Each structure stands twice: as structure tokens, then as C-alpha cells.
Amino acid sequence: MATQLQIRRGTTAQMNAFTGAEGELAVNTTTDTVHVHDGSTAGGFALAKADGSNIGTYAGSFTTLAASGAVTLSSTLAVTGALTATGLTSSGPINLTAGALAAAGNAGLSHRSADNKVYLQAGTGGFNILDDQQNTHFFIDSAGVSSFNNNVGIGTSSPATKLAVSGGYISQTDGTRTLYLGSDGTGGLFGTTTNHYLRFVTNNAERMRIDSSGNVGVSVIPPAWGSAYANVNVGTAASFWGTKTGASLVAMSDNSYFNGSAYIARNTGAGSKYYQNAGAHYWDRAASVSAGATQTNVTGMTLDISGMLAVPQWHIQTTALGATAYIASGPQGGIYRSTSSIKYKRDVETIEDIYADALLDVRPVFYRSKSDNDNSAHGFWGIIAEELAEIDPRLVHWQTHVPVESTDDDGVVTTEMVELDTPEPEGVQYERFVPLLINLAKRQRDQITAQALAITDLTTRLTALENN
What we know:
Elements: E1 9-10, H1 12-17, E2 25-28, E3 33-36, E4 45-46, E5 71-73, E6 77-79, E7 88-90, E8 94-96, E9 108-112, E10 117-121, E11 127-130, E12 136-140, E13 146-148, E14 152-154, E15 163-165, E16 169-173, E17 178-183, E18 188-192, E19 198-202, E20 205-210, E21 216-218, E22 229-234, E23 238-243, E24 249-254, E25 256-258, E26 263-265, E27 269-277, E28 280-289, E29 294-295, E30 297-303, E31 309-310, H2 312-316, E32 326-327, E33 335-336, H3 353-359, E34 364-367, E35 380-383, H4 385-391, E36 396-407, E37 413-428, H5 433-467
Parallel strand pairs: 1-2, 5-7, 6-8, 14-15, 21-22
Antiparallel strand pairs: 2-3, 3-4, 9-10, 11-12, 12-13, 16-17, 17-18, 19-20, 20-21, 22-23, 23-24, 24-27, 25-26, 26-29, 27-28, 28-30, 30-31, 32-33, 34-35, 36-37
Helix pairs in contact: 3-5
């Protein structure tokens, strides 16, 4: 039988009270560990177990700690120097009390005393966060490009999207500009600060921009609009804008934008504009000008708040084919409905015979029209307005405005309706002949009736004479 060797032993309390000789060994029967004594330190120094379960706070420096498996720490491990391990599991914190950031290209976890910060540095191949099956959930390559394979939560443990932020917003700043994404606590927020614009880019090309004044450009940089207007510029021509001051002005223009005082052509060519103001609608047109030049808009049609539709061009274009209609010759060229009810009339009197008799002095004519809207080979019956105006001015349409073209210093031609000093006869109101003709017909009827009675009387008297 082998000889049994026993070494000095005792409980933890006994070991802590015992000071052994230098090099003497003692067994702690409470922790089943071996203590080495130096001849002066009470309790000596406990040696580590193979599984590392009795390793606590260590104030020295580990050069290399290797084990047949992972080293499990049941209490705090404080490391003041470098720590190299093939496996490390801790039920408490790992405290780094000193050290420098790992050298470039080397992965490391370190504490830098200069700024009192802890750094986790990836290796040259990038940084991965893996699950227990070695599947990558988050990756940053060596160039700093990151990718998510699963949902990531900041401030939440249950992210429902690739990146979920709870209780705040994401921001990025370069010192003077800040980009926000999320909520500022009062509502949704996405934008920039300090007079900078926000761009939306696809395929490395800018597709939309919101400038610092709130103007929007789609597929184009928005022009320098007036500060009192909110604007959207679509492509290189179309624009939508309205006032920021509360006035009811909304406009849409082609090949122009409003800079607060004038309309500016985006490209060389003509332009057009539609706008609403105070409940009315306006359709304007502008002659061709060079890109960047001021456009002069002329109203082509209006629909006012009362529902009146007015088109000046209707007065300029004429024809002898249609029935009579009243189109005002003023700047707006309004169309009016003709009425005959007594409720629309006042100072009603029977026509005097002299006015009806004057109608017989009118000269009926045959003519051919000069209008491009008529067939030049056709002939018409009619009356000359100027001649009729001399006989009875109430039977004539009077022109009060005429279109006048003007050319500015840039060679831009514009048309404006200018009021005449003296109205001119323009058209004949043929329907106004009817009351006069009725007067003539009635008097002619009375005359024929009287003549017929006279003829009958004379015939009777002649017959009586012949029979005698």
C-alpha cells in the first residue's frame, strides 16, 4: 500500500489566521484549494483551480491564461494590463482600469486613460455581431459600411423594423448642419437645420430638393422664389405656388416662376398661367421671351366669383354665320344672356311711329365677309353698322375697346385691350328690328283695312249709280 502524505490543513478562518514558512503549502478544507506561504503573509496565496472557479480579483498581470475549455469567472475580474483568452464567460462585469486603444488592424477591447473611454475595435476584416449559430446579424466592414440582417432596437427590446428608435430621434451633424429623422417629442420630424436644403437622391442623382425657404423642386433645383410664396417646381417648366401670408392666391404656370415681383421664363419660349384669387379663376398667356427674361401675362379667360365667364378673344374673332349674341368689348369680353321679361325693364313706352318709319331709310346691302372664319366666295345680305348708327344708334353694337399690340425694348410683343375715346359701331342688332317692323306692319294693316272699307263703300255707291 502506498504511503499517505498529509499537508497542514484547516478551514478558511483557520487559514486566514495562519502564517506559514516561506514555501510551505497548506490546504484550505473549506474551498479545497492549496495556499502557498511566503513566511510573512497571513493566509498565504491561494492557487487557482483547473476550472478557474476560485479566481476572484487579481491585481497582477496575466500574460496568458489557457485552459482545456472556457474560463468561467464567478466574480469580478479586474485586469490592469492585457488579457488574452481563448474563451471567457463572466457572471459579473469585466473591468478595464488601464490600457490603450489597440493598434490599427488589430481587434481589441480597451480602456484609454486619456479620455476615460472604453473602445471596441474591429480587425482588418470588419466587425461582426453573431448569434449562437454563427449567423451574422450586424456587420461593419473595414471601410465603415454597415448592414443589418435583422431588426435592431435602440431604446426598445422589441424592434418591429430594421432600425427602431424609441423615445427620441436619430440625428447627424457636422457642426453647423443637423439631419433629423424620427420625432422631436411633439410630432414627426425629418429635415435639416441652419439654412440648408434637403435632397432626395436615387441612382446617385438628385430627384427632389426642399430648400431652406421651404420651396420644392422635383427633378430640378427650385428657383429663387419670393420669400412670401410657397412653391413647387416640377421639371424645367411647370410650377405650382401660393402665398404664405394667408391671401387666397394659388397658381400653376408653364415655363415660368414668380420671384415675388415678376414672372420669369425658365426656358426660351412662350408661357401660360392659371391661378385662383379670392374665389375667381384666371387663365393667362405670355408671348415668347428668352430664358431668364420677364414674362408679360395677358388674361385669356376669367371666371369670376359670381360665375361670369369672360373671354376677350371672343370679341376679337368675328363671323357672319352665327346668330346674334352679346359679347362685351371691354377688357374681359364677357358674354351676357339676352332677356325680354318685364321684370328686367323700366320706363316702358309704346314706340313712336317716327322711329319705325326711320327704319325704312336703312340701306340693305349684299356683301362678302373679310373674316378668315368665313368662306370668301359666299355672299351675304346685311346692313352696314355705321349707316344704321346714323339712323338709330339703339340698333347697333358699340365697340368700347380695341386690341393694341406693343413691342418692348427686348422685342417682346404683347396685346392689350385699350378703351376708345369714342365708341365705334361694331355690329347690327337685327333682333331689335322686330318691334319697329311690328309697328310698321300694324300701321300698314290699319291703312289697308281703311282703304278696303273705302273701296267697298265706293264700289257700293258706283253700283247704285249704274242701276239708276
